[in-house]
Amino acid sequence: MDIEELRTFVEVADAGGVTAAALRLGISKSIVSRRLARLEADLGIQLLARTTRGAALTEAGMTFRDHAAKVCAEIDIARETILPEGELRGSFRVAAPLTFGPTHFAPVLAELARLNPRLQVRSCYTDRFVDLIAEGFDCAIRVGHLTSSNLLARRVGQTPAVYAAAPAYIARHGAPETPEEFGAHEVVMQGNETWLAIDGDEVIPLKPHGRFKADNAVALVAAALAGIGVAGLPTELVTDHLASGALVPVMTRYPPPILGVYVVRPPGQHPARKVRVLTEMMIEHCRNL
């Protein structure tokens, strides 16, 4: 077996079929099929079960996929180590938030691809915190407050946040102005997260509760505008609504802390050069925003 056979298998496994993998790799379906056949012949075991909808991993294929992805990643790192200068190459999988990603971070990834024609950029936009290790991502761009984990993080920028509610909500329930009052109010939220409020040098944890939850901040803006509850949001998402009066700041004496923008990666002694390059580009990009 060779490295291209392993890369092709990983792409087929991730794409869910030969056709989609061929499009990702920029090669014909026949080449993909031949590489898969050689790999299965070398291993003496079936990795993929062909179906009318594409290809599904066998039990052996699911196990082998993770090992194959790690081998491909190690080869990319080895190449970068012996070729520290010049353009980047290989595959680069990046996760970014759906809320800010397409508008704020996609231009950075596009510029990275333009500067490095041999780099295959695979970006995934979701507000779900992907498992970088289990899902085979090189790194992720995240906005907010990081929780404790074994991931390594580099802060590349920041963005302010605000607590706000619609005038209709305030007319019915009043506006919370202290952490004590906050506990009696409905909020719109992503999950069961803890919110934070700043009181001088003290950070006060808040335990929000509400009946409206969404995994995307844009959806939470819509719910706040409808008067369902108090929202805690990046200020940039609601600047126009604050200016028009459609949303009103609350808890102004106890604002949320500044949100960090981070590049996070799986643990390892040295980050891959493509992660380092993206990190530096993100720092410059955030500085200019």
TrEMBL record:
Gene3D superfamilies: 3.40.190.290, Winged helix-like DNA-binding domain superfamily/Winged helix DNA-binding domain. Keywords: DNA-binding, Transcription, Transcription regulation. Residues 1-58 form the HTH lysR-type domain. InterPro entries: LysR-type_TF_proteobact-type, LysR_HTH_N, LysR_subst-bd, WH-like_DNA-bd_sf, WH_DNA-bd_sf. GO terms for biological process: DNA-templated transcription. GO terms for molecular function: DNA-binding transcription factor activity; sequence-specific DNA binding. It comes from the Bacteria. Belongs to the LysR transcriptional regulatory family. This is LysR family transcriptional regulator.
